[in-house]
Amino acid sequence: MFTATRTDDDTAGYGTTAEHLSRLVRDVPGFLGEDAAHTPGGLSISVAYFRDLAGIEHWRRHPEHVDAKSRGREQWYERYVIHIARVEHSHAFTRP
């Protein structure tokens, strides 16, 4: 789970990079899915689901993800927090 507050720097390729990473993570062994939400004020929450810690570690070390994290600290984020947690139960609702 990645919660971040963005900087005002919208010209530095954040959107393109985020879309690219969203496609890349799908090829990581053990990847199960992702959810994301963003507010106009710059708050973003992204949750990636993996089968196990090995998948998380694979993604953490992926070279393009490593580069994007570096750019994020330099340009895109005022602050961020990462939480790694186990989902014990999940259910959903979708309006018909």
From TrEMBL:
Q: Which InterPro entries match?
A: Dimeric_a/b-barrel, Jasmonate_Hydroxylase-like
Gene Ontology molecular function, alphabetical: monooxygenase activity
Keyword line = Monooxygenase, Oxidoreductase
Query: What is the top-level taxon of the source organism?
Result: Bacteria
| Keyword Transcription set for record | no
- The keyword Oxidoreductase is annotated on this UniProt entry: yes
Q: Which PANTHER family match?
A: ABM DOMAIN-CONTAINING PROTEIN, BLL5343 PROTEIN
Q: Tell me the protein's name.
A: Antibiotic biosynthesis monooxygenase
